[in-house]
Amino acid sequence: MKSNSVSQAVVAPYAEALMSLAQEQKNLDAIAKDVRLIGDTLTDSLELSQLFASPLIGADVKKGVVENVFGSQVSPITKSFLLLLVDRKRIAFLGQIVNEFKALLRVIDQVALAEITTALKLSRSQEDSIRDRVKAMTGARSVDLDVTVNPDLIGGVIIKVGSQVVDASIRGQLRRLKSSLTAGV
């Protein structure tokens, strides 16, 4: 827990500073697009994440990588921000900063994040149905889904929105049935 709070103490100010700068420059949409691109790139490239996290790789190399990978694809503000992270030795936290920025953006845009765990890949209509239910539950304007497939659920779905959890999985139903049967013994 301590390492999580330490990283949050590092991550939050940088995400908030980028958000503040984006709003101040009236450039929020472009920077939000840049942040999504950076997040997708980090997700797709484990090597890039490892390079940024490595204390053995120098700042000059990391700046060169930022320039080569993101230089022409992101706005000058975003590129300057990435270079600042390298200078301040905070580039290792880039993935977490991206996630925090996205969370701040969801608050501004009134978008709820629903973390979905399902046994099978969801169809488009199932995703739309879940979005509608989460909208009704939260009052959000729209809903982002973060879907994870876990065959151990057997069937059904687990939906987590903030601190609320709806467990409609077969595994959850079996666990509740077991609890009720053993409680009666």
TrEMBL record:
Transmembrane segments: none
Superkingdom: Bacteria
Keywords: ATP synthesis, CF(1), Hydrogen ion transport, Ion transport, Membrane, Thylakoid, Transport
Ion transport listed as a keyword: yes
Cellular localisation: Cellular thylakoid membrane; Membrane
Presence of the UniProt keyword Cell division in the record: no
Role noted for this protein: This protein is part of the stalk that links CF(0) to CF(1). It either transmits conformational changes from CF(0) to CF(1) or is implicated in proton conduction. F(1)F(0) ATP synthase produces ATP from ADP in the presence of a proton or sodium gradient. F-type ATPases consist of two structural domains, F(1) containing the extramembraneous catalytic core and F(0) containing the membrane proton channel, linked together by a central stalk and a peripheral stalk. During catalysis, ATP synthesis in the catalytic domain of F(1) is coupled via a rotary mechanism of the central stalk subunits to proton translocation.
Matching NCBIfam families: ATP_synt_delta
Protein name per UniProt: ATP synthase subunit delta
Species in which this protein is naturally found: Pseudanabaena catenata USMAC16
Lineage: Bacteria, Bacillati, Cyanobacteriota, Cyanophyceae, Pseudanabaenales
Gene (name only): atpH
